[in-house]
Amino acid sequence: MDLSKIAKPGSSKSKMIYHEDMDNLHIGTLDKHCYFIPFEKGEDPFADRESSKRFELLNGDWKFRYFDSVIDLEDEFVGQDTDNTIPVPSNWQLHGYDIPQYTNVLYPITFEPPYVPDEVPVGVYSKTYEYSNDGLDRILVFEGVDSCMYLYVNNDFVGYSQVSHCTSEFDITPFLKEGENLITVAVLKWCDGTYLEDQDKIRLSGIFRDVYVLSRPKKRLLDYRIVTDIDTGKGSADLSFIPYGIDAHITLYDPKGNVICEEDAKDSEETRFSVRDAKFWSAECPALYSLKIECGDEVVGEYVGFRKISIDNGVVKVNDVPVKFKGVNRHDSYPDTGYYCTNEQMLRDLQLMKQHNINAVRTSHYPDSPKFYQLCDKLGLYVIDEGDMESHGCVDVYNDFKWSANNGYNGIALIASDDRFKKAILDRAESLVKRDVNRPCVLFWSLGNESGYGTNMKAAGELVKELDNTRLLHYESLHHLDDTSNAVLDVYSQMYTSPEGMQKYLENKEEKRPFILCEYCHAMGNGPGDLEDYHEVFYSNERFCGGFIWEWCDHSVILGTTPEGKIKYGYGGDFGERHNDGNFCMDALVYPDRTPHTGLLETKQVYRPVRVSKGEGRYEFEFKSFLEHVSPSDIFKCHYEVEYDGGKKDGKDISFDLKPLGKCLIELPELSEFDDKDAYVRFIFSYVEDTDYCKKGYEACFDQVRIGVSDVKENKTKAEYAQPKVSEEPLNITVDVGDVKYIFSKRFAKIISITRNGKELLQKPLEFNFFRAPTDNDSPRGDWYRAHLNDYIIKGYDTEVTSADTKAFIKQKQTFGWSMYQPFATIDVVYTFSSEGLDIHCDLEAGNKLQFLPRFGLRLFLDKNYDKVSYYGYGPYESYIDKHRADYIGNFEAKVSDMHEDYIKPQENSSHYGCTHVTVTDGDGKVSFTHENGLSFNASEYTQEELAGKRHNYELERSGFTVLCVDAYMAGVGSNSCGPMLKECYRVPLPKLTADFHMIIS
Fold it and tell me: Which member of 284, 430, 476, 519 is catalytic?
């Protein structure tokens, strides 16, 4: 709607005419330029910006009025008073106005560009500002406003701007008066830019980044450009500096604060100088030089990193060394502050990344706060800096409901060649580059995300290269509706390609560019489970330069707390949205409060900087460095310890000399004492000094190698053999062995009772278990429910009871199914009862309905007092066949109440893989399972039905039992929520399998 036609002519509302005008994206704004903060001469320009006398932060409580529709806004809304306030920065949906919406792909509005709904919500912010004419201009800066803003000072219209995650600056000096002034900002929830901001996130609105005023002289530094080049052979570096708007005097300091050189730089002219014995910047060694820029009565502090990003014969190199990006995608998302990130929040994110061996971050899918990049410079993270650009919703706009178009997903490119959007797309690319062009951490510019490829994207790429030819250009261009060349892109980028698909890329002889996975290993819920597989492929060829896990943090909004104080985290569907995408936003390596998922711990180990393998000698080990610019032996110490079944022995510190990307051998002959044990040596690497992200002694990684194999078979006690006593009735078979009595029901085809000294062990019958509470990555879950793995009907056939020597046997054919279909499984079962315990042998044949089972094992309901667990296998965290690198083989003990990974959407969790034995006890009686080839187990207060049936963790109710699941087979977890199907080798093998269980009651 054209608001000028319904508003009083000349009124403040009548000026609101640009949010549906794709030819007028910014009105009254200053030219784009690199980010910097001026200080007054004599101040420390490298101090926090808040300490500058030229910087005035306007964050805090602003007066606020919210309208469900801009139509209801008064014509003269500027100056209308209110007692309501809202913190700035923030999102108004987190303060009682409007509701959040989580949508991944689908647009939140009708697709009618450039128009948005007439009933577009609007928030009106106002704040007083004191001004005294000191001859300096006042520049009002907004670092982030979603989705667009109209600015007024006093009663005057100053300007308009959009692009939510980019900086908008206004010279408000002509509109100011002596004394008190009124700043008013009208923020619309949607504008024509909304069609280019369809990112996968919880949709929120408002002024969400810092607002401040800069006081600046009339003639001033408007912009500057820093370009570095290095000669790794000579160890030297060159620096080029160009100031715009004024002459400058520059001084360069080395990382220790020593003056390297001083130069005068003329306005708009290049000044160059060289640095000998330069320290180069990399993620592993982020050496920063300090450049002081003096311009009249202003001084600016800038950090310089001497580094080079290049492609050599299809290989991405940093400082002439091949590099692998061990990265993550990161959104600005916090459950309490929404899109607003404090310095402390950003720093915490980056410190956690570095602590977990992550070396790169993609700013998905928009530029972050300018301060974020300064932190990346300092801590050492490579950055793919991404434009505020995504039009994913076009894919559903383009297709009919049946998706009948050929290659329908190419419809994502619907506006990629639409001339109406060209100006806006180029504007976003320009904003990206011009603001962050001087940041050492930025290695790639990215045009955006999931918008398809076409002429507009090509033009944006050409603009980026015109603005900066020193970095690489990234964009995932796989989907397109025309044959526009993508040669402008420096790397070939894909998402969620399988490891096998990556290998096929190398077969394309026409494609010479490096391959990068801008998204992979979708870390939703219990996962990802294929990180190690991708690692192996990344290192199989130098043209694979790594990837970026999706994603860093779970997105959520706090709904409240339980009576016990537990935070209720909400996701799609919890806010009353028109449409939503459920918990697809809960897909990350850390919880909303930044508590690590086990997936982050897995990432840390897969991304580990040193790997250890067995050498050729009996007690020889090979250390291999995966650091590219720093010697691991310079920053880590190594200590070893030995784990063996039943014990653990501490070792010693190991001296080693390991160069970047190098190898070295060490020998530990003292390990011979473990030759006759099932033993593993664990090498632990820890930092030798404090860093910006961890303390001295912090464990960087570990590796574990098997060194001994015990020849001693499992000791089944033979001291007190008791002859089994068998009594058979029409429906039940009772077997007494010593002080243990078993009752098998022929009717229910289950062991319905196990007592020891008259005390019942089973709270429910012992049953075969095929089902698990589906993980987010369990795409076959629908088939599991259709087959009724979760509530099957069992039928027993041909029960046979025999005895031989000191054993009794019950044989039975059992089928498992429901209505409608044939059984999904048929098992020939042999139960063997003896003084050694209960042995169950199974020969299973599956029906034709399932690709694979989630598990096959036993489930026992024990008294809740059986709350202590000990085991020998992979621990201490949850572990699966494809997700156990964060764990190691050892002896572990835990309380059942602590053996639960509290995923926000409940699902299968806390299984332990590769265990040769597990015991659950109440302090008196014990239930044990053993298997020399390893089993998986889970001990929980919750049933799998409870986990599967609840949407949120805070809704879970304890069962009142200890639920023990012992699995001969447990499927891997993978990353199929948005990635390849689970590999065959991680599935429960079908159609036939054999399984054995050995249970001991004591």
Answer: 519
